[in-house]
User: What shape does this take?
Amino acid sequence: MKPWIWLRIAAALQAFGVVGHNVETLSTKPTHGPAEQAVFDAMRAFRFDLMGATRSTWDFYRGYQFSTTVTFVLLVTLLWMLSGMSRRAPEEAKPLVVALLIAQVFSVIIGFEFFFAAPGVVGALIALCLGIAAFGLYRVDKAMLTNRQRVSA
Assistant: This one.
């Protein structure tokens, strides 16, 4: 398959991840019993001043959840746009794909280390798609270089 297709698949997988993340993020009711409720209550109760604002640990927890959603949606958009760019200008798309691949590999490690299997597995599939796309873009770039050499000879 062409690199742009792998990038679209990565975008679709990331969109799936956005949905999964939001299903859990939007639910603020404890599902694991009284111990979880106690943790949530403690997070809401502990308030502190930070740079002129009074916040709770819960505020940070929820804020990071929503910030992650925004970042995930941005990544879906970038992957989709990058798929089109990889068709028009593969030599320009290649370093961006590699940069996203490196970031994604670290995200996979973080997902498995600090969260649970689902984000790790979905992230690994996205990394695989990015790796295949990057390899394909290197092949396209090499073919374009060979063609340029033939034309100039």
Remarks:
- The longest strand covers residues 47-50.
